[in-house]
Design goal:
Length: 259
């Protein structure tokens, strides 16, 4: 008999952000394993405000056990240096923490087929830890279709990667910068722009918004710029190009002229 208060004997732990990919993996793991499956959400200064609450809501909807773990990727020099391999150090921290907390338990991630075509050094960290990717051969479009079929509240949730992804490679990452980016994105999002990124260029904040919202953003440029400056940027612009995930991976970051 399991001692009262002992940790359940989990068979699988899902690295669970509450995004659509990890939500599908968590839902499938729960269907297969019931209370032997766990969703674990990492919290750190690199995680945008509100993401933990969202993850909790999705986990409760699925019914899967949910725990919070705390990571400290900022303690890793490779992460702070913000080279092109930054995500390797971030994911190494995550999987080190999960492996230590849940020894001998299978670790699952939401990496999908589309991730294979982008620059994803975090996949190397996953391989070193034996992480399993159940959606490895499933496209993002198919993942969202699965999420809709499963009735998951995160089915249409935009991707929300680590806040450090807004900082050009080579610019050091620190807690103050991450907090400033988070404040700026929350402020612009509150104006009705749900899909966006604030790219950090020192005293300049450059916001990218989704293509359908670009014209409206320029029509309300004064409010958008004020939101960025209210977050601490001395200068602020709206990018003339729409938001594109992974843009800093494929082209140099550059400020854009405002209108």
């Amino acid at each position: 008999m399991k001692p009262k208060g002992a940790r359940p004997l989990y068979l699988a732990v899902v690295a669970f952000s509450g995004g659509v990919d990890s939500s599908v993996v968590a839902a499938l793991a729960y269907r297969a394993l019931g209370d032997r499956a766990l969703a674990a959400t990492a919290v750190s200064p690199s995680v945008a405000a509100g993401e933990l609450d969202g993850a909790r809501r999705v986990a409760a909807h699925i019914g899967i056990a949910h725990e919070v773990v705390y990571t400290n990727e900022l303690a890793r020099p490779g992460y702070r240096a913000n080279g092109r391999d930054r995500c390797y150090f971030c994911k190494t921290e995550l999987y080190d923490v999960l492996a230590a907390r849940y020894p001998g338990v299978a670790l699952l991630s939401g990496a999908n087929a589309d991730d294979q075509g982008d620059w994803r050094p975090g996949l190397k960290a996953a391989a070193e830890h034996g992480v399993v990717h159940p959606l490895h051969d499933v496209t993002k479009e198919q993942v969202r279709a699965l999420a809709r079929e499963l009735g998951l509240p995160s089915a249409e949730k935009p991707a929300t990667p680590c806040l450090a992804s807004r900082i050009p490679y080579g610019t050091a990452v620190d807690p103050e910068t991450l907090a400033q980016i988070d404040r700026a994105e929350q402020a612009v999002r509150a104006l009705g722009f749900p899909v966006l990124r604030v790219r950090h260029h020192g005293i300049l904040g450059r916001v990218e918004v989704d293509a359908p919202d670009l014209e409206r953003a320029f029509a309300h440029a004064g409010e958008v710029v004020a939101a960025l400056k209210g977050a601490g940027y001395a200068h602020a612009v709206i990018d003339e190009k729409p938001f594109r995930s992974g843009r800093l991976n494929v082209e140099p970051a550059r400020p854009a002229a405002s209108r």
